[in-house]
Amino acid sequence: MRTIFLIAATAACLVPASSALAGTTALVDRLAIDRDGKPYFADSFTTSGPPLNAPSLADGTPVEYQAGGKLGHGAEGGGKLRLNADEGAYNPTPDGQGRRTVFVRLLTNGDNAKDTAGLKRAVAFEARALFDFVAPEKPIDGYGLRLTNLGAPDETPQIVNLFLFRDQAGRLVLRLLEQNFQAHVQNIVVDAPFAAQPGQQVELRLTHPAAGSPDIVASYQLFSGGQPAGEPVEVGTSSILFEKRNWARPELFIFEKADKPGG
Fold first, then answer.
1. Residue 216 CB neighbour total at 10 angstroms
2. pLDDT tens figures, 142-160
């Protein structure tokens, strides 16, 4: 098993809120990835206590997690990964809005020269994250799944985010958001109305549907008692991820508004 690295997040994200209420806690049941239609990675978060450990890839290759913000004792256990927005590190959005974010990133291959290792433009793949449905507590709270190409020495990634979000007006939506840290811009592709029942789960999916395609397709599906509660719902498509690099890494995240570092 591999040990997680804890760092201050460089490229966490997202959009403006009140801090009177307690931060949202997201409960992740599973992170899974398929590549070319076959299982590639799966983690059901059954290891207890720090450090957070990533299972090996399906072919036995070791892989590690990297995290930003605080993951304390008990963050993983009982088949859940717990992410609390109050324990986040300060991270600006590409356009300078403050966020406090906790993230867990799976460090799949990030070598542009290796076209078929990891999650590359040259292969089809799908990342899926199953969350217990929890409504974000206050405006600008959100949690979800994203694909990023953040990697040293260039800290100006393109990121595709799919997340449950309480917007400024207090509405619950599922947001597909593009972030370009090189251009210092972010773009809301769609805010899809969202509703789920207490006790349900929501699986967020980011799919690269075909080798060579620039597209990432966002979708979700609700579950009740471990069984699908309806058909998958497509949210939208983004084409920014592979503009600069040919690889992606999946990331679980939660965030809330923060006006300044430590605020």
1. 26
2. 999 999 998 766 678 899 9
Helix (H) or strand (E) holding 3: strand 2-3
Closest CA to 240 of 167, 152, 181, 165: 181
Provide the token pair at 144: 């979800």
**Exposure string for 87-115, b = 16+ CB within 10 A, e = fewer:** bbbbbbbbeebbbbbbbbbbbbbbeeeee
DSSP 52: P
Q: Can you say how many angstroms the Cα of residue 230 is from the centroid of all Cα atoms in its chain?
A: 23
State yes or no: cis peptide before 51, omega within 30 of 0: yes
* Angstrom distances, CA of residue 173 to CA of 147, 186, 193, 204: 19, 17, 5, 13
Each residue of 56-114: pLDDT tens digit? 999 999 999 999 998 866 788 889 999 998 888 888 888 888 889 999 999 999 998 89
Measured between alpha carbons, how far is 144 from 16 in angstroms, rounded to an integer? 17
- Say if CB 206 and CB 198 are below 8 A apart: no
Tell me, what DSSP letter sits at residue 154? B
